[in-house]
Amino acid sequence: MLTRRLFCVGMLLILAGVTPALAQSIVVASTTSTQDSGLFDYILPLFEKETGIDVKVVAQGTGQALDTVRRGDADVVFVHAKAQEEKFIQEGFGVKRSDVMYNDFVLIGPKSDPAGVSGMTDIAAALVSIKAKEAPFVSRGDRSGTHSTELTLWKEAGVDIEAAKGPWYKDIGQGMGAALNTASAMNAYVLSDRGTWLSFRNRGDLAISVEGDKRLFNQYGVMLVNPEKHPDVKAELGQIFIDWLIGPEGQTAIGEYEIDGQQLFFPNASGQRI
Amino acid sequence: MSETLTAWQLIASGDATLFAIVGLSLAVSLTAVVVAGIVGLPLGAILALTRFPGRAAMVVVLNGFMGLPPVVVGLSVYLLLSRSGPLGELGLLFTPTAMVTAQALLVLPIIAALTRHTVEDLWLEYREELSAMGVGWASRVATLLWDSRFSLVTVLLAGFGRAAAEVGTVMIVGGNIDGFTRTMTTTIALETSRGNLALAIGLGIILILLILLVNATAWGVRVWAVERAG
Amino acid sequence: MRAPASNLPLVFDDVSLSAGATTILDRICLTIGLGAPTLVLGPNGAGKTSLLRLCMGLLSPTRGVVSWGGRIDGGPERRAILFQKPVMLRRSVAANIAYGLAHAGCPRGLRAQRTEELLDSVGLSALASRPARRLSGGEQQRLALARALARQPEILLLDEPTASLDPAATRFVEEIILATAHSGTKIIMASHDLGQVRRLAGDVVFLVHGRLFEHADASDFFDRPATPQAAAFIRGDLVL
């Protein structure tokens, strides 16, 4: 009994010891698309090497990530839903929002193209056609940045999706990867950010159906969590990360990240667009 | 991480990241089982030996809680440890300690309920003999636990299997942070969402083999001990 | 340390025991004092085992009073019981004895030596490190006897200790019982083996259907049974 007790205490000490050993660390709440695309695996080691600050990324949908931050459980938030982010700032949870990078959304669909939208450049028209043919469509349904963009696009297409949704519209309530897996299994259309799509390996019969519409633009922003709301926030370390991200080194690193020779994200901290 | 590598190549190449993930998974789940055991074994034994009003209800609740949904446990611990929560000042959210806490809570009802069941059977057999020997209350608990030790190994293994295989609590309270709180199951979930199904399945097989290895070791120890102690 | 008060005489004052509607023992009045072994005799179902449990204090009477040396609080410090099917703890033979010694208040430093003596007295020294549950029936019975003796009881209660043993093992156990009796321990033992009763008994308690029919010296009981039931039982007839 005694040896077991000692063993347990030892284990707890070891685990507890991990935390202070990495005292120079911050928690970043971010989105599944940045994690699933592999961007963090590429840029974070560069940052950590330079500053010695350990960055812990908790990847959630944008809505959930913002909730995590509202509870004070992260120091920096790095997401892609500008309207939600600005509301977040207004509520006083975030200090200041900075643009970091963009990529774009693409409409993914089966090569058989039952809705006849392949090659279109008007996303609204493509959605109208999908709705008219009731071709299978997978929605994230998780209040993520991608999900809110999708809802905006339905609105632009003049479709009241709440009223129009039927068995063809699959609301799965999961992350980007899960949505792509589902679409791959069902040969359905799905809206994805380009980064996640490029790094996605289980494509099956899927391909890009629609791209290039300027309404598919996808801007990422970063904010420091307001230390006045949550005094435990590591404001100083968080600011170092933000400054690096929107500074020349971070911007270069983001621009360098490629999959199969394709650049996934385009740095635009200075505010320029394509 | 190169997506074209299979899990087997990762093992063969001694991939440090993979071994760190495996190590963390084992450390978290084993610690959780030890913590749950320290509380659950005596709790189950006491419940087996005592009769008090409300005991039947407690047994039913405990048995029911063997099926606690990991997501619910994870969410409860999350709200508890969140900086806005009652224990927020400890700063434990998104750490291995949080994962141990959540898994221990998940496993505790399993260990306590199965211990209660095992010890109660033995208690029926031992009751008169121990009374006749004038064995005190605390000593009865200790004796029954010790004499059920071979069955209790299986109880602890059931707890370990549950802890090592679940993804719901560790994902929520650990956050799946690369190199810090990323376990086998959260890695499998992540690789699945990246569409790396082959790698995910490979990792799944490694996890199953690990759980088998822990069980085989415990079984071997048990056989050896039974041989010695009957 | 004050010497504990004596457990004797053991007195049943109008004791009944029932389980639900079934009467197991019916208004028993009985006094058992120091002396040669008391044998509790009777057909199966007579209530012998229940009587022994009451003697031990493991059961409480439904009515009436059991007292030990005039006290009714009866902690089991100076009594021990050997059940018909004793339970072996899942540990070695020696550890079973040591367990009994520990709970009889034997100081830690003396336990090893006392364990050896007790195992020697029941002829189990060679098996000391064996798992107790692997012993044969006869060996288990002897181990349980040694564990009971570890309590240095003033009253030793035995429930058909030789019921499942072969003649050689029976003789061995009877010799230990007699030696224990000679050293001053009061033996109260249930049996339905008339030969054994003749060999061991100082006095006999004869039960049928939970009622006490006779309590007499062994010689009187066998030579001049006072009840037709006792006479029939001694003859070997079925007592209904």
Automatic annotation (TrEMBL), chain C:
The entry lists its GO molecular-function terms as: ATP binding
User: What keywords are assigned to this protein?
Assistant: ATP-binding, Nucleotide-binding, Transport
Q: Which top-rank group of organisms is this from?
A: Bacteria
Q: In this protein, which residues make up the domain named ABC transporter?
A: 10-234
- InterPro entries xrefs: AAA+_ATPase, ABC_SmlMolc_Importer, ABC_transporter-like_ATP-bd, ABC_transporter-like_CS, P-loop_NTPase
Q: Which residues cross the membrane?
A: none
What's a Pfam family this protein contains?
ABC_tran
Q: Which family does it belong to?
A: Belongs to the ABC transporter superfamily.
Q: What is this protein called?
A: ABC transporter ATP-binding protein
